[in-house]
Amino acid sequence: MPLYETVLIARNDVTQQQVEQIADDIGSELETDGGAVKKREYWGLRSLAYRIKKNRKGHYLFLGLDAKPAFVTEMERKLGLNEDVLRFMTVRVDEIDEAPSAILSRKSDERERTFRGPKPAGRFESGRRRGFDDREEFRARDSFQGEEFRPGAVEE
Fold this sequence. Notes:
Blueprint (H helix, E strand, L loop, with lengths): L2 E9 L4 H17 L3 E17 L2 E12 L2 H13 L3 E9 L8 H11 L23 H9 L12
Antiparallel strand pairs: 1-3, 1-4, 2-3
């Protein structure tokens, strides 16, 4: 049977479990038809490039399918009728790569690069930076520490 890759975008109002349920329904129908889901990835809630049906975000789901062409047309018809699905796209491929997709591998790279080192001095900053202890009240307090403080004593 031919191999297909399908990406679908669901509304941001639905939960991740409901999106997974859509994929489970596709998988169960596919197994009864003699096919199989080779790969399944949930890419998360992501921003859309432009508004689709008044939505700015959507749940992305990727499916790698081993199915008959008749099943794919029926699946696309049902996805088009489903109100929770904003967009979908199915492409026929020669093989389904078992490695994580580019979207998931980029997410893991972003998690590794959170700390980028100390911040360099700004272009317009000059002189010494003022820290917490450089405020005037702390300088005044520090200058009196050498002298003895007696409550109630009157200076002469």
